């Protein structure tokens, strides 16, 4: 019995230590910073957006009609990326992750989405450029609120 307690205690310590290391270590996504004030990045992102995203999210970032109502197949239409949507409610790293891996992979479970994962299609720099373009279109107040969200969700040490 004593041996079992030692093994269980050791396993718990390893798990807690692992969780602590994960929490305090900088992640690759912690380095994701959108650059909406960099004209070259924004222009590059706009070109990619028009080629890869505008067919669903609209050339004016307005999304598809009735984007909050499920379609007959159970999926949601493409949301707007302008200030009327919810894009700005998510921190940079999460927007990057959703774009790179796709909503289904990020949300998990049986979630289905028409949005593909862009890993292997766009480079990390291209994804940052697209998201920077999107953010550059938001009013200053919305950009500042998004910056606040980024600060509140930042891991310690990053």
Tell me about this structure:
By secondary structure, the chain is mainly α. The protein is 53% helix and 0% strand. The chain contains 7 helices and no strands.
Short summary of the structure?
With 158 residues, the chain is mostly helical.
Give short descriptive properties of this protein.
158 residues; 53% helix
Give the secondary structure arrangement, pairings included.
Blueprint lengths: L1 H23 L14 H14 L1 H4 L34 H10 L1 H5 L16 H13 L3 H14 L5
Q: Class by helix and strand content? A: mainly alpha
The dominant shape is: globular
Topology order in helix (H) and strand (E) letters: HHHHHHH
- What is the overall pLDDT average? 83
Uncertain runs are: 6-29
Number of helices: 7
The total count of strands amounts to: 0
Q: Could you give a short account of the major beta sheet?
A: none
Q: State the end-to-end distance.
A: 43 Å
Question: What proportion of the residues form beta strands (DSSP E)?
Answer: under 5%
Radius of gyration: 19 Å
How helix-rich are the residues, as a percent range? 40-55%
């Amino acid at each position: 019995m004593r041996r079992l307690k030692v093994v269980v205690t050791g396993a718990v310590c390893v798990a807690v230590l692992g969780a602590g290391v994960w929490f305090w270590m900088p992640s690759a996504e912690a380095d994701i910073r959108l650059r909406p004030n960099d004209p070259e990045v924004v222009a590059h992102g706009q070109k990619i957006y028009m080629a890869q995203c505008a067919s669903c999210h609209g050339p004016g970032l307005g999304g598809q009609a009735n984007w909050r109502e499920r379609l007959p197949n159970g999926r949601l239409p493409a949301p707007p990326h302008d200030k009327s949507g919810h894009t700005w409610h998510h921190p940079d790293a999460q927007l990057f992750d959703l774009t790179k891996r796709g909503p289904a992979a990020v949300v998990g479970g049986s979630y289905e989405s028409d949005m593909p994962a862009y890993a292997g299609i766009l480079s990390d720099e291209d994804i940052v450029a697209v998201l920077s373009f999107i953010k550059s279109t938001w009013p200053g107040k919305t950009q500042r609120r998004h910056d606040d969200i980024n600060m509140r969700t930042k891991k310690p040490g990053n």
